């Protein structure tokens, strides 16, 4: 076992008295000081750097200025001062958050669903604020969320410590258990939806008491975690009090394909607010300086060289905070832009539109809360909020009615997959849980590299068939039909014998499981 290193010597800082060590990191140490005027306790983060050239110092100052711009947000740690100590080490004087942070709490106590939702909404507003200022955090995890004296989560560590490295651009850290698949590939790419993934992984950790793809008591090496992050479906939290709607929010936030995630942190925050409303909890406001809901257009990440370490280093991506055009050449539009809102299984579409055929594996969480919350815009009057709520209710009622009429009166919708031709020309219909999902999915690797999957139909009926698909890291799975409760995945689709599938039961009347079952090989 590697011995824990000793803390570096706290620097002598004019106007501050050293009290004790708060924590040690890979790039910096954090000390508690007493500031003399105004008199208060502060946290001082001191970079571990043997030598810093002018370029690195300049970059450090730029990032410190950025943190100062963000620190007005109630869920971002406040920066008081940034300077260079007499011994040449850069340091930051920050707000001292005296209460236990999320890293200390999530493995030691059962954090309630209500508090997890509240933390998630507040962090979403902090992350959205950073994105609108043109910066990706890139290392969102419980260890980087402190707790203020008043119990608010406070996001910290916006990559400033990584300025000790030398390279073409400023870098920030990335921690494997909370990182999305696109940042773990050989040629990493990502945008603000990568932060959305990490936010979802952080909320998951608060609920589950473990990292998302960690197997309690099992093998959890870095390589094994990466393989699960890239291939395995998100496991349940294991808590009976976590509602299905919240599990779906986490699944969408942590989708393998960035196109299937929420397009912005604000969109995820609104989805968490919708869960609060459904649970009849007080709705946590999104603390944003304005009501601009347009997501910042995603820009590609330029990767930098990374060391082999628990924290991998990637380049910072600077987002243009004024980039609002939705027709930027070469930039895909967010999936939420043209997608109708779905509220707990009700597909809301314009009155003149035909409803799309439901898919057994699809559940899209709304970007807007199901219950209107208080308007956070400056100057908004109570009358404006009431009128807006009434209008929203009228529109919702009208669109739901239109869906019902269209469903009863229209012809069958067009088929969406060639493998559905065997279902008498109609797509499977999700029937809200009437048809059960298979269970006891077992995977048996074969000598030729293929994998045989079998499962159990808990309530067999005449004419039952099975719609199955291989889960992939990116893109939509291609569903296929089979008559028997077994399939063989060829070797080319199971590299190294590792593969995951999802399976639904399809009845003779074309109804199917409301939620497919999922299983993976070892």
UniProtKB/TrEMBL annotation:
<dbReference type="GO" id="GO:0004674">
    <property type="term" value="F:protein serine/threonine kinase activity"/>
</dbReference>
<keyword id="KW-0067">ATP-binding</keyword>
<keyword id="KW-0812">Transmembrane</keyword>
<dbReference type="GO" id="GO:0005524">
    <property type="term" value="F:ATP binding"/>
</dbReference>
<keyword id="KW-0723">Serine/threonine-protein kinase</keyword>
<dbReference type="InterPro" id="IPR000719">
    <property type="entry name" value="Prot_kinase_dom"/>
</dbReference>
<dbReference type="InterPro" id="IPR011009">
    <property type="entry name" value="Kinase-like_dom_sf"/>
</dbReference>
<feature type="region of interest" description="Disordered">
    <location>
        <begin position="284"/>
        <end position="379"/>
    </location>
</feature>
<keyword id="KW-1133">Transmembrane helix</keyword>
<dbReference type="InterPro" id="IPR017441">
    <property type="entry name" value="Protein_kinase_ATP_BS"/>
</dbReference>
<feature type="region of interest" description="Disordered">
    <location>
        <begin position="408"/>
        <end position="434"/>
    </location>
</feature>
<dbReference type="Pfam" id="PF00069">
    <property type="entry name" value="Pkinase"/>
</dbReference>
<keyword id="KW-0808">Transferase</keyword>
<feature type="binding site">
    <location>
        <position position="45"/>
    </location>
    <ligand>
        <name>ATP</name>
    </ligand>
</feature>
<keyword id="KW-0418">Kinase</keyword>
<protein>
    <recommendedName>
        <fullName>non-specific serine/threonine protein kinase</fullName>
        <ecNumber>2.7.11.1</ecNumber>
    </recommendedName>
</protein>
<feature type="transmembrane region" description="Helical">
    <location>
        <begin position="386"/>
        <end position="408"/>
    </location>
</feature>
<dbReference type="InterPro" id="IPR008271">
    <property type="entry name" value="Ser/Thr_kinase_AS"/>
</dbReference>
<keyword id="KW-0472">Membrane</keyword>
<keyword id="KW-0547">Nucleotide-binding</keyword>
<feature type="domain" description="Protein kinase">
    <location>
        <begin position="16"/>
        <end position="279"/>
    </location>
</feature>
């Amino acid at each position: 076992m590697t011995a824990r290193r000793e803390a570096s010597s706290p620097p002598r800082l004019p106007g501050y008295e050293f009290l004790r060590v708060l924590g040690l990191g890979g790039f910096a140490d954090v000390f508690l000081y007493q500031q003399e005027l105004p008199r208060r306790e502060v946290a001082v983060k001191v970079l571990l750097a043997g030598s810093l050239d002018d370029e690195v110092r300049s970059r450090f100052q730029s990032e410190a200025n950025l943190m100062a711009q963000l620190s007005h947000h109630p869920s971002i740690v406040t920066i008081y001062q940034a300077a260079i100590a007499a011994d040449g080490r850069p340091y930051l004087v920050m707000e001292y958050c005296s209460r236990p942070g999320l890293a200390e709490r999530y493995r030691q106590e059962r954090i309630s669903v209500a508090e997890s939702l509240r933390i998630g909404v507040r962090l979403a507003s902090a992350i959205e604020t950073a994105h609108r200022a043109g910066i990706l955090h890139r290392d969102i995890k419980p260890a980087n969320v402190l707790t203020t004296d008043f119990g608010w989560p406070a996001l910290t560590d916006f990559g400033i410590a990584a300025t000790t490295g030398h390279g073409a651009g400023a870098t920030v850290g990335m921690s494997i258990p909370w990182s999305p698949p696109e940042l773990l590939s050989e040629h990493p790419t990502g945008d603000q939806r990568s932060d959305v993934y990490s936010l979802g992984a952080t909320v998951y950790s608060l609920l589950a008491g473990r990292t998302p793809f960690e197997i309690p008591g099992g093998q959890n090496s870095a390589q094994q975690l990466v393989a699960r992050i890239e291939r395995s479906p998100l496991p349940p939290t294991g808590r009976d009090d976590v509602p299905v709607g919240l599990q779906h929010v986490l699944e969408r936030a942590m989708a393998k394909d960035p196109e299937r995630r929420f397009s912005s942190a604000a969109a995820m925050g609104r989805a968490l607010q919708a869960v609060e409303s459904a649970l009849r909890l007080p709705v946590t406001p999104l603390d944003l300086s304005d009501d601009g809901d347009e997501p910042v257009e995603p820009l590609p990440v330029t990767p930098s060289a990374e060391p082999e370490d628990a924290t991998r280093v990637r380049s910072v991506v600077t987002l243009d905070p004024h980039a609002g055009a939705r027709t930027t050449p070469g930039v895909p539009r967010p999936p939420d832009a043209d997608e109708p809102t779905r509220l707990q299984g009700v597909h809301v579409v314009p009155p003149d539109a035909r409803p799309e055929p439901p898919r057994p594996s699809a559940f899209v969480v709304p970007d807007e809360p199901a219950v209107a919350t208080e308007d956070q815009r400056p100057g908004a009057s109570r009358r404006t909020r009431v009128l807006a709520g009434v209008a929203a209710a009228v529109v919702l009622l009208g669109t739901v009615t239109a869906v019902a009429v269209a469903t009863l009166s229209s012809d069958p919708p067009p088929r969406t997959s060639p493998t559905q031709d065997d279902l008498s020309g109609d797509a499977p219909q999700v029937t809200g849980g009437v048809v059960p999902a298979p269970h006891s999915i077992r995977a048996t690797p074969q000598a030729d590299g293929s994998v045989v999957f079998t499962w159990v139909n808990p309530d067999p009926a005449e004419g039952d068939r099975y719609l199955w698909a291989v889960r992939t890291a990116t893109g939509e799975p291609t569903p296929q039909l089979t008559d028997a409760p077994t399939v063989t995945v060829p070797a080319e689709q199971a590299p190294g014998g590792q593969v995951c599938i999802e399976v639904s039961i399809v009845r003779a009347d074309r109804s199917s499981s409301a939620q497919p079952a999922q299983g993976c090989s070892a």
